[in-house]
Amino acid sequence: MKRHCACQLFVLLVMLVAARQAGAQWAQFRGPNGSGVGADTGYPAEFSTTKNVVWKTAIPNAPSSPVVAGGRVYVTASQGDQLLTIALDAKTGREAWRRQIPRTHTHKIYKSNDPASPSPVADEAGVVAFFADFGLVAYANDGQESWRHPLGPFRNFYGMAASPIIVGDTVIVACDQAAGSFLLAVDRASGSVRWKTERTGRTVGWATPTVFRPAGRPAQLVVLGSAHLDGYDLASGKSLWWMRVASQGGIGMPVASGESVLITTLAASEPWMPEFGAMLEKYDGNKDGRLSDAEFKGDPDLGEHFGWLDENSDGVVERAEWTAAREMGVGEFGALAIHPGNATGQLLPDAVRWRFQKNLPFIPGPLVYQDVFYMVRDGGVITSLNVATGQLLKEGRSRDALGGYSASPVAVDGKVYLASNEGKITVLKAGGQWEVLGVNDLGEEIRATPALSDGRIYVRTREAVYCFGIT
User: Per-residue pLDDT averaged across 396-417, rounded?
Assistant: First the structure.
């Protein structure tokens, strides 16, 4: 009897340890299924460069976010022609290893992006990184290279930003570009192709895919682009449904919540770009019915975005290209709760269960935590909605953090963390009537989304990775 009880106790302890380890993983961009929500407790509300710092490690700058798995904190970066993957010990911050691969191709990208914008994805076995100027590369936990899968070159004026994800034994990455966009699924162990699906239409986007598991239907992969929200069969990559959405760029990662997919898209009820004819009258110096880069570069709103408008990269923007870009601002927009149900093909308008068209973010994705929907936008504007109905619960500001926002909100332990570009991290007491508990100023630029794991907050600033915890 004693031996039987001891065996039961041992099994229980193993299960508890395994559960704790699983809860401690923040293995992809925004953590478990990109939700931004952690599962454990004991996280600090107050921290700084001198308070509640467990460790700090200097690393090269990049906007990709840290991920945590297998006792490692993984980050990516670029230096000159080298693409870096760096592993830090999660407990001490000591650099365990650093690997670099040369770019196999290089293309000019918009000034605010970086060759290492996509975040890596990890598991107990190691890490997979995606670099637009190379493709996919996998390393074991000890730093040994496991496999390579070259991709590109890509044609995306703003650069690539969607991060890879691991689902079971499959790595999935969305490769959206001006033409030839696709979804790719490869074997986690070998990098061999499982399936590849073309994404048709003007699908340029930067949002990481989300796994959606509706009741009674196979698991789906949801991808947000600039003009479409698409649902694909997770096992095969087959297109299942789509919805026309309006967006000035599909950036914020969708969130799966129950039977709904929640997104935020920044647009307007009318096209925000003027008619092409008006632009010709203003800028078409040689009267050839087209706009060259030299003619157009003086436009205060779109002059530096000529490469985005020039879809076929022939050095001029014609009416069809302008019209296609202009029409991206027409369609469903806002904070949307979309319920695909059993529909196939194009979703009807009644698939939108609720919409909220105010205080919309450009880059940060939405957060659902404890039945409340959160958004944060530039100016420190924070909005909470009822996740079931879209009813406004509260809107306000983090008055000590009024700058721009690129990082997405994350939540754990009854707290919501909001990191501004200026390096100020607002901590909210979670709830529909949220309260600002404090603002922690790190004094250094933050564009990466923090990672939450085992009572620790991992924050990537311009020059370092910080680990904060109650000390």
Answer: 97
pLDDT of 304 reads 85
Average pLDDT over residues 255-279: 87
Binned at pLDDT 50, 70 and 90, residue 324 comes out as: confident
Region class of 70: left (phi > 0), else alpha (psi between -120 and 50), else beta: left
Q: Taking a C-beta distance cutoff of 8 angstroms, is the pair 403, 446 a contact?
A: no
Distance CA 337, CA 255 (A): 10
User: Which pTM was predicted?
Assistant: 0.92
Task: Look at 15-19, 83-87, 91-95 and tell me which has the smallest mean pLDDT.
Answer: 15-19
Task: Compute CA distances 14 → 3, 10, 11, 26, whole Å.
Answer: 16, 6, 5, 21
Q: Give the C-alpha separation, 227 to 245, whole Å.
A: 5
C-alpha distances in Å from residue 97, one per residue of 94, 141, 212, 321, 371: 9, 9, 35, 46, 40
Q: Pick the residue with more confidence: 10 or 57? A: 57
Q: Domains plus CATH for the chain?
A: 11-271+329-468 (2.130.10.10), 276-327 (no CATH)
301: exposed, middle or buried (C-beta count within 10 Å: 0-12, 13-18, 19+)?
Answer: exposed
* Mean per-residue pLDDT, 199-214: 87
Q: How many CB atoms lie within 10 A of CB 173?
A: 24
